[in-house]
């Protein structure tokens, strides 16, 4: 065993640990302490849990047949775990843990909790699609939930019908990607989860730690409103099953809890019969008041054929209509009369809705869509319609991803900013931000805007939303293009605009809350949570008393690194 530890610390870690932990502290003493700490960490994990370690390929081969989790210090693992989709921060962990199941996660966390000196930082990483290092664990261990465990068909649970619930559900691994959940439930009974994100290559645990929203949220609520039960590994290393009636504090606290209370290893997700096809419709507005009035009217409709199933929208400066990465819709195949927009300079708003249908409703879908559109006030002649299979609609952003990857435009910095804005102030937001800070331009990527009904969000969850019956998501999903000729698309310019948007919201008292929040100081977090802060802090103290979990969120003081102590 000692040989393995020696291998671990002599090869790959020496360089990588320097990167984050010991940048600027290059004297031999600091390095010696680092090595001592790593020996301690690894031996603690090995002796407490009996975990195999993979310091190099030869050892990996030797350990190939060993069951249970695997602790890796391979440079490729460390590099992957040290970055995320945002490409804005990099912090390297000491090791990456690949669990085979909940018991492995529990064993690792228990070992970290038991370690003298205040615990070891542990962060679950779903698919690493955070923006600002939320799934990183500088100087600690990243638990690779998504790549570490791929359910074999024989091991996956099947959908279950519950007479009590009056519908189906499925139990899934917390690191499972939503695209895999979808494909599996479709193949087993033609079922699908009810509530989505726009992009499906995100993990169940990752989105449930935030909320998980898309255009269905106005009706079904966010994904966290569509979960019946969780298994959570707490910060003490205990696996706790929780639901509305069983350990409700942990259940609701973990939903939208930013990974602070535990690692979700199993989620029981509500399912519905999946429709076969989707009528996907977009229509343009130049008048913001009419645009938002129509959106709010549509989300107030809750019944059957008299409503759309999905309501979103986005801001399009006329200059960005064609180049926007979500605008492939306005392609030459569509009978688009862009000429009708010639006289519109400045900002336009695009309503996006869908009507689902299957064989039994195919005969009435046109009529239903016509009736719903007939009551809206978009610019005449700007309705664009596509008809496609339900799965293709749900997986639409992945198609954009593939195109961007081809152009080398996916793995670039993403200074994204997501805000929940109360409906009563959305017009002020329009004039202050879209026409003010942004100067009627949408440089850098899509800006989504759509309303949701607060009564579909359970107030017992940890997610923070504005205090109004209706609030909007406004999502600035912009990419900084390295070497861009347009200075407005540089990282610096986009980050400056984000700051200006937040300053405007503060100064104008908009009452916006960040979604996928990123705050730096604890007083900012306290302001974010508002009167919910005391409860959240109490739950943190109860379920993660050493504040070891998801330290990349930067909410609570984390266990000290050896170098700091
Ligand atoms: P990670 O980045 O891996 O983790 C996020 C946080 O959750 C970290 O703090 C991590 O420690 C914690 N965590 C991860 N797994 C677990 C677990 N099993 N248990 C407890 N904590 C855990 N969001 C929406 O709501 N709607 C959208 O439409 C949407 N579209 C997106 C499109 C793209 C292209 C991208 C990049 C992001 C999008 N998001 C959207 C945001 C996304 O939901 C969050 O960033 C989410 O956290 C990403 O999931 P992940 O699995 O990559 O999480």
From TrEMBL:
<protein>
    <recommendedName>
        <fullName>cytokinin dehydrogenase</fullName>
        <ecNumber>1.5.99.12</ecNumber>
    </recommendedName>
</protein>
<dbReference type="GO" id="GO:0071949">
    <property type="term" value="F:FAD binding"/>
</dbReference>
<dbReference type="InterPro" id="IPR006093">
    <property type="entry name" value="Oxy_OxRdtase_FAD_BS"/>
</dbReference>
<feature type="domain" description="FAD-binding PCMH-type">
    <location>
        <begin position="89"/>
        <end position="274"/>
    </location>
</feature>
<dbReference type="InterPro" id="IPR016169">
    <property type="entry name" value="FAD-bd_PCMH_sub2"/>
</dbReference>
<dbReference type="InterPro" id="IPR036318">
    <property type="entry name" value="FAD-bd_PCMH-like_sf"/>
</dbReference>
<keyword id="KW-0812">Transmembrane</keyword>
<dbReference type="InterPro" id="IPR050432">
    <property type="entry name" value="FAD-linked_Oxidoreductases_BP"/>
</dbReference>
<comment type="similarity">
    <text>Belongs to the oxygen-dependent FAD-linked oxidoreductase family.</text>
</comment>
<dbReference type="InterPro" id="IPR016167">
    <property type="entry name" value="FAD-bd_PCMH_sub1"/>
</dbReference>
<dbReference type="GO" id="GO:0009690">
    <property type="term" value="P:cytokinin metabolic process"/>
</dbReference>
<dbReference type="InterPro" id="IPR016164">
    <property type="entry name" value="FAD-linked_Oxase-like_C"/>
</dbReference>
<dbReference type="GO" id="GO:0019139">
    <property type="term" value="F:cytokinin dehydrogenase activity"/>
</dbReference>
<comment type="subunit">
    <text>Monomer.</text>
</comment>
<dbReference type="InterPro" id="IPR016166">
    <property type="entry name" value="FAD-bd_PCMH"/>
</dbReference>
<dbReference type="Pfam" id="PF01565">
    <property type="entry name" value="FAD_binding_4"/>
</dbReference>
<dbReference type="GO" id="GO:0005576">
    <property type="term" value="C:extracellular region"/>
</dbReference>
<dbReference type="InterPro" id="IPR006094">
    <property type="entry name" value="Oxid_FAD_bind_N"/>
</dbReference>
<keyword id="KW-0285">Flavoprotein</keyword>
<feature type="transmembrane region" description="Helical">
    <location>
        <begin position="30"/>
        <end position="53"/>
    </location>
</feature>
<keyword id="KW-0472">Membrane</keyword>
<keyword id="KW-0560">Oxidoreductase</keyword>
<dbReference type="Pfam" id="PF09265">
    <property type="entry name" value="Cytokin-bind"/>
</dbReference>
<keyword id="KW-1133">Transmembrane helix</keyword>
<keyword id="KW-0274">FAD</keyword>
<dbReference type="InterPro" id="IPR015345">
    <property type="entry name" value="Cytokinin_DH_FAD/cytokin-bd"/>
</dbReference>
<dbReference type="InterPro" id="IPR016170">
    <property type="entry name" value="Cytok_DH_C_sf"/>
</dbReference>
């Amino acid at each position: 065993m000692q040989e393995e530890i020696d291998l671990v610390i002599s090869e790959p870690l020496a360089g990588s640990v320097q990167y984050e932990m010991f940048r600027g502290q290059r004297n031999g003493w600091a390095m010696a302490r680092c090595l001592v700490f790593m020996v301690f960490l690894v031996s603690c994990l090995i002796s407490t849990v009996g975990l195999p370690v993979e310091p190099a390929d030869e050892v990996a081969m030797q350990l190939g047949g060993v069951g249970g989790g695997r602790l890796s210090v391979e440079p490729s693992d460390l590099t992957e775990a040290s970055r995320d989709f945002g490409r804005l921060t990099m912090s390297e962990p000491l090791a990456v843990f690949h669990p085979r199941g909940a018991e492995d996660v529990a064993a690792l966390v228990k070992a970290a909790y038991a370690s003298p000196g205040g615990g070891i930082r542990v962060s679950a990483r779903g698919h690493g699609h955070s923006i600002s290092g939320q799934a990183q664990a500088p100087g600690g261990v990243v638990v690779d939930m998504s790549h570490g465990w791929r359910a074999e068909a024989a091991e996956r649970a099947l959908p279950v019908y519950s007479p009590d619930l009056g519908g189906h559900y499925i139990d899934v691994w917390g690191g499972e990607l939503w695209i895999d959940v979808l494909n599996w439930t479709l193949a087993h009974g033609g079922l699908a989860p009810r509530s989505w994100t726009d992009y499906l290559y995100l993990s169940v645990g990752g989105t449930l730690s935030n909320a998980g929203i898309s255009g269905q949220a106005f009706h079904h609520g966010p994904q966290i409103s569509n979960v019946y039960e969780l298994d959570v590994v707490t910060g003490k290393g205990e696996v706790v099953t929780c639901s509305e009636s069983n350990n409700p504090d942990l259940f609701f606290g973990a939903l939208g809890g930013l990974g602070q209370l535990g690692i979700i290893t199993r989620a029981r997700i509500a399912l519905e019969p999946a429709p076969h096809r989707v009528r996907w419709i977009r229509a343009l507005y130049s008048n913001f008041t009419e645009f938002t009035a129509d959106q709010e009217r549509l989300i107030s409709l809750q019944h059957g054929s008299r409503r759309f199933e999905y309501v979103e929208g986005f801001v399009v400066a006329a200059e960005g209509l064609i180049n926007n990465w979500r605008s492939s819709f306005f392609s030459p195949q569509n009978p688009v009369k862009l000429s009708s927009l010639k006289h519109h300079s400045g900002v336009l708003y695009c309503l996006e809705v869908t009507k689902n249908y299957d064989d039994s409703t195919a005969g009435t879908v046109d009529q239903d869509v016509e009736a719903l559109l007939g009551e809206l006030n978009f610019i005449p002649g700007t309705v664009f319609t596509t008809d496609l299979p339900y799965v293709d609609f749900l997986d639409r952003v992945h198609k954009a991803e593939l195109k961007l990857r081809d152009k080398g435009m996916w793995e670039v910095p993403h200074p994204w900013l997501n805000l929940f804005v109360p409906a009563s102030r959305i017009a002020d937001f329009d004039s202050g931000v879209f026409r003010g800070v942004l100067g009627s331009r949408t440089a850098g990527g899509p800006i989504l805007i759509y309303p949701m009904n607060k009564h579909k969000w359970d107030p017992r969850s940890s997610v923070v939303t504005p205090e109004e019956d209706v609030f909007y998501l406004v999502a600035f999903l912009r990419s900084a293009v390295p070497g861009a000729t347009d200075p407005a698309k540089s990282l610096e310019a986009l980050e400056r605009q984000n700051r200006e948007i937040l300053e405007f919201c503060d100064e104008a008292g908009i009452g916006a809350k960040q979604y996928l929040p990123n705050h730096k100081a604890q007083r900012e977090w306290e302001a974010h949570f508002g009167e919910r802060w005391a409860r959240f802090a109490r739950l943190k103290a109860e379920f993660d008393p050493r504040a070891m979990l998801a330290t990349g969120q930067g909410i609570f003081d984390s266990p000290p690194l050896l170098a700091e102590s």
